[in-house]
Write a structure and sequence with these properties.
This protein has helices at 39-42, 87-90, 139-167, 196-200, 204-212, 215-224, 228-242; strands spanning 4-6, 16-17, 31-33, 48-52, 59-64, 75-76, 79-80, 94-103, 106-116, 122-123, 128-129, 171-179, 185-194. With 243 residues, the chain is an alpha+beta fold.
């Protein structure tokens, strides 16, 4: 169960957060959401796909970490072994909330920071302090606020990007079938990727429209990330040989 609380320097003056990555902290997810503004960094390590959110039925962009549930092949007890960790992972145990405020008689939602007090990262004895002794924000909290801002903006940017892809019929479903060294087979369904043929067949106006929004570069990075599947398979086979 989560225990989301609005963060403040009185209630949480002694709260600390363990910043390391570890399976016991729930970092062993097999995928995580990524955003347009981090594709340049994320495509270095991870295969990137789209999937439909089971609750909203809308597409979201994800980085794949493993082939089965709760399998993160970039994570072990010593930490996360990749050059980049997505913002949706780094922001934990913080999350974005909204607080209603009336301005000039008009109600509006302000973005505020919440913290999950039931997260195993959170304690009052060990970790990075959230607030300074005199009540100000620590450098860590300033950093996390920037990450949360990136996540908040990222949801809006992703929606526009995905709408553009869907509007031009550039997404196609794909099934990933992987046979491992021990003979076992993994089949991943429900994934989508860029239809490269449809992308290359775009007329000039559509291509220029995508390029003007910065989406052509994003599309090429998504396509390039497919090469990371072979590395993910090697990581999986390495775990099998160790066991």
């Amino acid at each position: 169960m989560a225990n989301h609380q609005l963060l403040d320097n009185i209630t949480h003056k002694d709260t600390k957060v363990n910043r390391s990555f570890h399976p016991q902290f729930g970092d062993n997810d097999s995928y995580a959401q990524v955003f347009v503004q981090e594709l340049r960094l994320a495509q270095v390590d991870y295969p990137l796909f789209f999937r439909k959110n089971s609750q909203t039925d809308k597409f979201e962009m994800i980085a794949m970490f493993g082939f089965t549930a709760q399998e993160n092949l970039f994570l072990d007890v010593s930490g996360w072994h990749a050059s980049y960790v997505p913002m949706s992972i780094r922001r934990r145990p913080f999350l974005i909330g909204f607080q209603e405020q009336v301005v000039d008689g008009v109600a509006q939602d302000n973005v505020v920071v919440h913290i999950d007090m039931d997260s195993p990262r959170v304690s009052t004895t060990a970790g990075e302090p959230i607030f300074l002794s005199q009540g100000g924000q620590s450098e860590y909290l300033v950093e996390m606020s920037e990450v949360l801002g990136g996540v908040h903006n990222g949801h809006q940017d992703n929606a526009k990007f995905i709408d553009a892809l869907v509007g031009l019929s550039l997404l196609e479903s794909v099934e990933i079938k992987v046979e491992l060294n021990d003979g076992s087979k993994n089949e991943l369904q429900g994934l989508y990727t860029i239809n490269e043929e449809a992308f290359l067949a775009l007329d000039n106006l559509d291509f220029l429209s995508l390029n003007g929004q910065g989406y052509v570069e994003a599309i090429y990075m998504l396509l390039a990330s497919m090469g990371n599947l072979s590395d993910l398979i090697k990581r999986k086979n390495a775990t099998l040989s160790q066991s």
